[in-house]
User: What shape does this take?
Amino acid sequence: MCETVTRLETDQEIIYMCPFSGAVKGKVLITNYRLYFKSSDAEVPVVLDVPLGVISRVEKMGGASSRGENSYGLDITCKDMRNLRFALKQEGHSRRGIFDMLFRYAFPLSHGLALFAYLNQEKFAENGWNVYKAMEEFRRQGLPNNKWRMTFINKRYELCDTYPNLLAVPFKCTEDDLRKVAAFRSRGRIPVLSWIHRENQAVIVRCSQPLVGMSGKRNKDDERYLDLIREANDTTKKLTIYDARPNVNAVANKATGGGYEGDEYVNAELVFLDIQNIHVMRESLKKLKDIVYPNVEESHWLSSLESTHWLEHIKLVLSGAIQVADKVSSGNSVLVHCSDGWDRTAQLTSLAMLMLDSHYRTLRGFQVLIEKEWISFGHKFASRIGHGDKNHADQDRSPIFVQFIDCVWQMTKQFPTAFEFNEHLLLSILDHLYSCRFGTFLYNCENARDQHDLRSKTTSLWSLVNSKMDLYLNPFYTPESGQVLYPVASMRHLELWVNYYIRWNPRIRHQQQSPVEQRYKELLALREEYLKKLEQLQLSDSSSSYQLTNSTTPNTTSSTASTPSQQYTHLQTPL
Amino acid sequence: MFSGKPIKPTFKCYLPPAQTDRKNSIQPPIRLEPEFLPGEIVVNDVNFVRKCISAESSQGDLWGRLICTNFKVSFIPQGPPPKQKSQLSHLLLGQHDISLTCLEQVVTVNDTRGKRKVLGSNQKLKFNPTELILYCKDLRVIRFCFDEAGPESAKKVCLAIAHYSHPADLHLLFGFEYQGLRYHKGDLVNGSTPRGGIQTPVFDRPSDWDREIKRTGASGWRVCSINEKYAISDSLPEYIVVPVSLTDQDVKQHSPSFSDGRVPLWCWNHRNGSALVRMAGPADPLTQKKTEQKIFTAITKSHPQRREVTLSDLDKSLPNIQDIQSAFVKARQICTLDPFEESEERWLSSIENSRWLEYVRTFLKLSAEIVYNLDGKNVSVILLEEEDRDLNCVVSSLVQLMLDPHYRSLNGFQSLVQKEWVMAGHRFLDRCNHLKKNDSKESPLFTLFLDCVWQMTNQYPAAFEFTEFYLTVLSDSMWIPLFSTFLFNSSKQCAQLLQ
Assistant: This one.
């Protein structure tokens, strides 16, 4: 790694209160990017290397007069399922320096400083900002066509300041229609196309809730607009509207001016998906942390896990996405929204697209999916994660994106050969969701990113990933385009993602690389070697007896130019 | 263990049912003949039976003929056979077949009269059944409806199934009929087909034990043939391994002190010299202390470093066979609930409440502790259990599986099962309750063992030669009485009955 880290302060004897191996003496180094701890005792080699971005809260524990061993020090709460405690000597305000340093550089925005991503000088072979170009992605989907057109109405983010600047809308609607619809949709987030099915032309459209309010307002333009969306697909008799919220919450939203589509939308049917809001998800993950960190609640593990409801939420999100995918693949256009259309909506559309479109299951395609459905459509990463912000109790924070990645992980577990990327990619994404080393997950929307010159001043996470793709590839991947993946969203099949949620616990055995994967890679290498040998033999053979080679050349040699994954298809099927 | 079963509910359960409601039309029957094994005969059959596929709707139901033979219950669906054979297709049974030994409970229902009766053998039925529900030991629940079938023949088939699934005598199990026709004692006596020239040792002869002693480097141990013709114990194998310092006479003399004459049995030796031994509780408390001391001394002598032995009393640290059975019954109930949504909401806590996984964990944990004694502390361990025929089987085989990679090969695993279960006298007949005579003796210890193994294969995916599929087949084969391996209570019983 060639990142530049400005040295700020070093060298102070400190005790890391490791919950697993007890109190460990060592030295700590704090830079503007990380906290680094190394035990001075060689027999207990404990190393901590924590990007400051994962810190959500730094507290002083104990006072100058508190008694008891190691009762004076710092308590650090992290966003990534762990806490860190350090104890110091009580004399001479020994913790003040470290505390100030941490507080300042873990929360730079609260101190008028720039996020580390703006200071990072790392250079990579590939520029990850080029991974996603909205127009290219629309073209890949076969757009524009005679039913859908591109519009630049949001070029200066005037129609909707949290949307991207390029939108796909029904061909028949005018720019004026769009403005009228924007007035009736929360924060101007009008229904726009996310994905179109190549064969049956059914679409996934996303938006925010309609502004129905207590009085039950109607908007003819919105009604007509939804009907245009429906008409754009011949086989859609009724447009299915998936409201991600529980029914009662949707009703309650009327009080604040929101609501849901009523009977006046004659050619539509409304389905509530019962997914809870960001606050419920936050509390659920907090409960999960309580039972896995620092110690795993062993005696009543399953019922404790159940009482966090984390897996139940995962199940609802997944089964919602399954319904969306199933509707679309049977030739029915759908519209997905929640309240603002940037949390649950992003989860549902992106997961449904992952099920429907094998392109998104490749390493690059998955990056496109995240860039498109999450980043460009204004999932509020800055508010949900709280990058560089000291306000740890902010009610806007919520692990919605973590939940999405968990759902993806559940799918990779159920379809081990369907994804080109591996678990390591998912872990890396979550690590850098907090680290602030890359610009990828910073800010709430494109408008803000443009204002802060994000793409010219910071590096993309995909630069790191795509410069070392080998690390993130799944050797078991067998490309099968056109296949829709329907995971089983049943409690019987959902698992806790131990390698993420319990990864700090050394007692939970986790393998960086499974032996099966290792063996498989060896076999692949062996096969490659033999194929080369075969090719060589045939070459030397053909020079001596041309006739013979011609008649006996097996098919494999003629395809040596094709990608390795294609060649290995046969080898993979028995697995 | 449950994941090997075909899972019926799919994601479709989350989708509203499709609108189309096709009427099932009954077509004139084509001849619906099942495939029979040699010696298999049809007892009774009935046509126009509907096999229920889903609890929610009758849409996917199959129509066909229901047959009861002396070996299985067979359902032959009308119409062309499915194009694709199901992935876990069976070599001996069809997709819709259930061997009679696999039946746990036969229940007849009359919908209109609100009646329900669990059927045993030789029983009468006062109502015409409209429905037959078969609860199977392999976690299937199968429902047949007789709405279009002749009431009398439906009733007859139900009674026949109930009767033939409760054999009055071990000889009436189909295996005996089949055995006589297909296999002859002699050249195929060693069971499985040779695999790469290696046969699975069955430990019915001294050479098998000798080879095991050599393989593990157990120089302090020898094969003893004092139990030939089952002279000192009915439940021990004819050849056992004992410390070299004990003479045949010593063994014979010590034998009466133990339950059923079961002198302590050598199981396995660690490379470091420590041995794993299994032992039954005392038959005669008076002489017990003295005998035990002598045996312990002999085992200590067999250890190259003369280490004291460690005794592990499994009865004190593990659930008993009734606990295990009731946990299994609960787990089975949760797993077979139909529609499955009912168990979905509280799935995790229900599974926890069944205690099945807790028991799996307890067995694995205790075995790992014993591994630590043998491997880390280099001391010989004696597993003590009242009868030495249940808990000891599970723990001794788990310990060996953890320590010795040989047993993680397919052949090694089979020899382990043969050595620690079949030859050690695990009461398969009673624990499987094949004769359905004594429910209190029923307990799924072997299933528990297989679950523990499955957990290990999950944690060490590259360490085992065999697959999850193999474990499933092994489990299923317990309920197919064609193989003698899991049919008897002891090798003596097996030898007597197969003569």
